[in-house]
Batch of 4 targets.
Target 1
Amino acid sequence: MTAEGFELGLDSFGEVATDGDRVLSDAETVRLLVEEARLAESSGLDVFSVGEHYREGHNDSATPVLLAAIASATERIRLGTSVTVLSTNDPVRLYQEFSTLDAVSEGRAQIVLGRASATESFPLFGYDLADYERLFEEKLDLFMRLQREESVTWSGTVRSPLVEQRLHPRMRPGGIPTWIGVGGSPNSVVRAARYGLPLMLAIIGGRPQRFAGHVELYLHALQESGHPVQPIGQHSLGLVADTDEEAVETWWRYWQPVVADLAAERGFYAPNRERYEAEIAHGALFVGSPGTVARKIATVARDLRLSRFDLKYDIMRLPREARARTIELLGREVAPRVRRLLRMEPAHV
């Protein structure tokens, strides 16, 4: 991927924002996402993606509906998911939702499929976590066949069979861009390569370069499967502000309580300031001024052979002004700097 073709995008989990001292309602947050997608487009960003979660404070549970609203409010920016939990979705319905989104947006739809790191959707929709792997494998097989074949005959163990089924509205030939999201499992990396699909690395902690082995595995598995080289992307968290100090202090104020709650829930270390600053300096937090964030993105792009980087910019109760400033600076200042740095020393792709 050339420096000019390197893509930068935004990921949102629909987390509630604040406006002054007031926490926005769920409905206001949904409308804010449409507004932020318009801002992302006007700022020059390439992709706006929304996740799928079922937790308090998140408003991204009806992702295709939200993306369709954004499609009507924008003209150019590509629209995708930062994660779609395929295991608890029906592939037939998912095809219909995203073929409709692709039609409404005039070919701007894409999707990142994942097995789910947060598992609230399993009991919500009546699935057993014991079937975690089988659900994803069978549903991925069906979803890709629906995209790649004109009519599908399929049978498995996780849904009713299909016989010469042709769905409508039809997707474009070959389907929409479909990425596999990976949080660290080598099996998921190999699965993405087996289907010839792009790889999205969800890196939310630790040095991003530790995923270099996954990249090598993916490229080798693509070759072994007879597929051409596919794009590799990275999803990480962060905030861009006018100065490093402003960014560091703002993100700490809102990131610390969120991670402290997750630590208590999942049994890992509670965040402290020293570890936080280490994550900014060497880890997976992209927090700082435009120059600082651009240099860090360019470095990981070279090290991991990336052709795309998505910043997860919203976090619980972050002020809407800070969210908007991140979007503006990422598009207008960070993106041009990253491409300039990559022209000087290209990524290894």
Note: The radius of gyration is 19 Å.
Target 2
Amino acid sequence: MKRCRTKLGALALALGFAACAEPADEAGTSGGDGLPEGAEAISLLGEPLYPSPAAAEVAAQQARDIDVARADYDANPDDADAIIWLGRRVGYTGAFRDAIEIFSEGIEKHPGDGRMYRHRGHRWISVREFDRAIEDLSHAADLVRGEEDEVEPDGQPNARGIPTSTLQSNIHYHLALARYLQGDFEGALPSYENYRAVTTNPDQLVAISHWWYMALRRLGRDAEAAAVLEPVTADLDVIENTSYHRLLLMYKGELDADDLWDPASGDPAGVAVAYGVATWHLYNGREAQAAEMYRRILDGSGWAGFGYIASEAEIARLEAGAGG
């Protein structure tokens, strides 16, 4: 490791954490260079984005989790699992730049481990650096191609304690998402197809079907979009991704869009639903209504949620198309 960040997020600093990584031109990390004091990212609309304080109980649990992850890392700093869990735990606090540096350290130590690129790619999306996300996630996909898929342990387990995602599905999901957020709907399609090839449960099915359906509708490929909806039924046993399930049923005409619309939701899943409803209006020809809904979403909190990021991207495209 060739350098350490001199300024860390408040929580990480309080816990004595100092992640080290290569310089930006070697490791691909920015270290937050050029950002305002305390900011994690610049929004797609040019606004600095700062970590949102968690509720006291949540923050206390996060601190305990990082203590455990840090102890495991200190006991064996070359262990891939210890590096990944430290990065994940730090990332859950909103200290995305610190998490990126941890995964960069992991890449330096384990350049052939696709998990490192998968997790760093996710956090590049969080900080709106989509090209870097695509680079990392594409490399992760290359590294795991032809390998047996593996269940990815949950950092924040669902109510049943049953993990619902895998390494390969998460790589393809986030790679497709990064391209979708750039407006490259055509480029996202192969990743949706690759995800579907490793789908093994209803949660995976509804997660990918939602974004896949929207991309096809944006491309005007309505018949193919309708085919994506065919396996989705109301009686699917969905554990986590109930928001995506409800949206898909709305696309099928089985739920009313107005019943799903809740732009004030502070829950990332609720924001994802709001984004899906707004975009349904967009590709059905109601651009002005969709734009107003996106702006309502951006009035809320939770800027790290994918529905929020996607709403930013939509407004940025609309403003660019209107000449600002």
Note: Strands lie at 3-4, 20-21, 41-42, 48-49.
Target 3
Amino acid sequence: MTIGFIGLGNMARAVIGGMLDKGIVKPEDICGSAKTEATRKKMEDSCKIRTAAGNREVAEQADILVLAVKPQFFEEVIEEIKNISWEGKTVISLAPGKTIAWLQEKFGQRLPVVRCMPNTPALVGEGCTGVCASAEVDAKTRETVMEILGSFGKAVEVSEKMMDVVGAVSGSSPAFVFLFIEALADGAVAEGMPRAQAYEFAAQAVLGSAKLVLETGSHPGELKDMVCSPGGTTIQGIKMLEKNNFRGTVMDAVITCVEKSRKM
């Protein structure tokens, strides 16, 4: 099985790194294309994969082809490769906003297509990827795709109508979390803590809190209550966040991302 990548940016590197770490494929079973020779050379040196300057060459070799370019370049790339023989091939799309129907229309045929939405924590093996597949994807290929997408974190099948929501609650939210970590650290710095130490405390607290939610299965509100002692410091902090509409603002941020994704 040959897995091809058109685009070798951060997400492609995360997927390739996960597959290689888990031994799903060997480096020689992966080929990829990128616009610049520097990017191709970097991937050849770091991951030992095969690369090509042309997208069509990669598409022709691949059994599973991963489209990992920016959404605005999808139509251009598809136009370049759509006339090759697609027998036995499956396409994986990493682009937000591009539906299965849209992809099949641009290819001009009902190809087996898997649409997925990974997020940047995939770069450290802690991704969360929403996945949906067209009816043309057979059970064996679906299993292979889920193994690939689970190699760098969690992969969860969802209905396609939920993909825009996945993009917001999983794809965009790391940026919100980074902003939250920065704000936590800024507060600590304001009270005299050195910045590097403040980032370490804040980031570890967020990591540990997320792990508690996932591993205990407890409701986040229940875990929040565990920290809030009567008359203590934490409940005063919660009061300030609620006073400034913290939860409502976060909800609005997620909803705004979903609305934007649906228009892409």
Note: The radius of gyration is 21 Å.
Target 4
Amino acid sequence: MAEKLLIGAEAIAAKGWLKAHQWLILRRVSQLSILFLFLLGPWAGVWIVKGNLAASMTLDVLPLTDPHVLLQSALSGVVPELSAIIGVVIVIAFYLLVGGRVYCSWVCPVNMVTDAAAWLRRKLGIKASSQMAQSTRYWVLGLTLILPLITGSLVWELFNPVSMLFRGIVFGMGMAWILIVGVFLFDLFIVKNGWCGRLCPVGAFYSLLGSRSAIRIVAAERDSCNDCMDCFVVCPEKQVIKPALKGAEKGIGPVILSANCTNCGRCIDVCAKDVFQFGTRFNNLKVNASGKQVDGEVQRHAVQSE
């Protein structure tokens, strides 16, 4: 088999099952709670949140707008309302702080589908059968912004699995099942972490938005690493780990600075040595063991060269 089946077994033995899954549990609570708040209105008539993940109003006071959707709308010729613009400013401010791709791991319901595919892939020992460049998602992102200019409509939103899954949960899945099952099978049999890591333009957009965000995963205890490789197995963007974890001799700081890190916390969960923790990008301003100051730029170049 390509990968170990008992990923995180050492962490469970060292920390207990709950602590070895704490960030995974919190992510599921976050994702399901957000869905529940949206569903309370149409299902129970309790309108705490109105709208959907593209645009919503909480308690008739707080507007939130997906900047990717608003940008598509503007490119299609729609003049945004003031509340939509305020909602975008709030969302952008939030993701500039916590990291754009936090949306992918803490909000997006499709993440639960792709995580399930990744889990089953490990259980079945399925090897990746195809390769796809990580840059593909940025080409798809570009396409989602060009099409509104050409067609005058939000073409991507007609096929967006996030939008379709949300509508399906509220109004009945219908044909949405085909797309969601397709995403699951694509990740399971064709490309490992293929949808979120190679194709999804929403993740690509948020990675650009949060590229300078403050909150980051830090390999604070990287000297304690025993090379079990569990973090690399569970990470949906494993290429982001190596510079921070193994770059001390090159003067690379312990902070994962890559914009593609989703801050999901699974590397924290599965590490028996507690190598990883949440911190900030400013951890790289500390002086390393050789007495050289780490400014983060070295690590950024290392990530880009991976």
Note: The mean pLDDT is 89.
